[in-house]
Amino acid sequence: MSYKLGFVSQKGGVGKSTLARATATAYAAADWDVKIADLDIDQGTSYTWLKRRLQSELQPTVEVQTFGTFAQADQRSDDYDLMIFDGAPHATKGTIEIAKHSDLVVLPTGLSLDDLEPTVLLAHSLVKKGGIDRKKISFAICRAGTNSKEQEEVRDYLSQTPYHLLDGVISEKPCFRRAQDEGRSVIECRYKGPREQADHLIQSIMNRLEELTK
Ligand SMILES: Nc1ncnc2c1ncn2[C@@H]1O[C@H](COP(=O)(O)OP(=O)(O)OP(=O)(O)O)[C@@H](O)[C@H]1O
Ligand SMILES: [Mg+2]
Q1: Which of 27, 34, 172, 198 could connect to 143 by a Cys-Cys bridge, CB 3.0–4.6 Å?
Q2: Highest taxon of the source (predicted)?
Q3: Distance between CA atoms of 178 and 27, rounded to whole angstroms?
Q4: What is the pLDDT of residues 40-62, one digit of tens each?
Q5: Domains of the chain by residue range
Q6: What is the pLDDT of residues 181-208, one digit of tens each?
Q7: Are 34 and 82 a contacting pair, CB within 8 Å?
Q8: Which atom number of ligand 1 is nearest to the Cα of residue 172?
Q9: Alpha-carbon distance 3 to 191, whole Å?
């Protein structure tokens, strides 16, 4: 059985690749055969991350390949236990394709209304235009600040939408940036506290995928 997991957004830089890499390394650590399909053909940032990972000889190994279209990537899905689609910086035609074919589609969002509104609008349009089952859509709070009241307000805002909100957050932290610069994922960050924080959100993604596919 092979599973498909998508990370998409309306805006760029929200944390799609960060979550895709962390989820991939978490499943690979559990001995799953995982591939990240990097659909950002112009930058291929997950592919360059893999090069840094290989140079540092980090374990577990994950495969990353850049594809021009969702369809090209999806042709390879059956070769893996899990195919992870790391979406292009902006919503494209491929975004609906990713959402349609994935068992779970994660929309990372920051805390500002400038991030939240386009995220919720994208979720609506996936349902309206793409006919995607709303249960498959999950929001993940990324690049969060440290103000807990702000986080509470955002959780409250997102809970009022008809979509699932993943437990946990990933804060904006230099150590997460540095980890990825070294070819690590955020769950492999050198500091225990941040690592546990990232683990929590990634575990929520894994739990949600299991719930939707059992
Ligand atoms: N929690 C974080 N703390 C610090 N830096 C972060 C964090 N999350 C992401 N970044 C950094 O922010 C940048 C954008 O993150 P990322 O590449 O995950 O977003 P993306 O949605 O994949 O972007 P794009 O739309 O360009 O593909 C990267 O340089 C990444 O290292
Ligand atoms: Mg990216």
Answers
A1: 172
A2: Bacteria
A3: 22
A4: 988 889 999 999 999 999 999 99
A5: 3-213
A6: 999 999 999 999 999 999 999 999 999 9
A7: yes
A8: 3
A9: 31
Give the tens place of pLDDT for each residue, 1-52: 899 999 999 999 999 999 999 999 999 999 999 999 999 988 889 999 999 9
CA distance 87 to 128: 20
> Hey, is 12 helix, strand or coil?
coil
CATH topology of domain 3-213: Rossmann fold (3.40.50)
In angstroms, how far is CA 52 from the centroid of its own chain? 20
Atom of ligand 1 nearest to the CA of 40: 27
The closest ligand to the CA of 46 turns out to be 2
For ligand 2, an ion, list residues with CB under 5 A: 16-17
Ligand 1, CB within 6 Å, residue ranges:
9, 12-18, 40, 45, 89, 142-143, 170-173, 176-177, 180
Closest CA relative to residue 8, chosen from 120, 88, 118, 124: 88
Give yes or no for a contact between 97 and 72, defined as CB atoms under 8 angstroms apart. Answer: no
Radius of gyration, CA atoms only, the chain: 16
What spacing in Å lies between the alpha carbon of 186 and ligand 2's midpoint? Answer: 14
Neighbours of 55 (CB within 10 A): 10
Tokens of residue 88, six digits: 């292009």
Lateral strand order in the sheet of 63-66: 63-66, 34-38, 82-86, 3-7, 104-109, 137-144, 164-171
